[in-house]
């Protein structure tokens, strides 16, 4: 998707706090890049509780 569209720009049309970056995988993030997916999610949740 990100190769064809600016996904973050699309989401910013609907929300103020939009962050993200591509991961080295295709559609199934938890299956194809489990460590990277978990790391990004943990960082997000830790930031939300700080």
UniProtKB/TrEMBL annotation:
It comes from Streptomyces axinellae. InterPro entries: AB_hydrolase_fold (IPR029058). Gene3D superfamilies: alpha/beta hydrolase (3.40.50.1820). This is Alpha/beta hydrolase.
């Amino acid at each position: 998707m990100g190769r064809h569209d600016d996904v973050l720009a699309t989401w910013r049309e609907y929300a103020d706090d939009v962050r993200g970056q591509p991961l080295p995988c295709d559609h199934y993030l938890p299956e194809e890049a489990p460590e990277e997916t978990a790391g990004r999610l943990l960082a997000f949740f830790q930031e939300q509780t700080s």
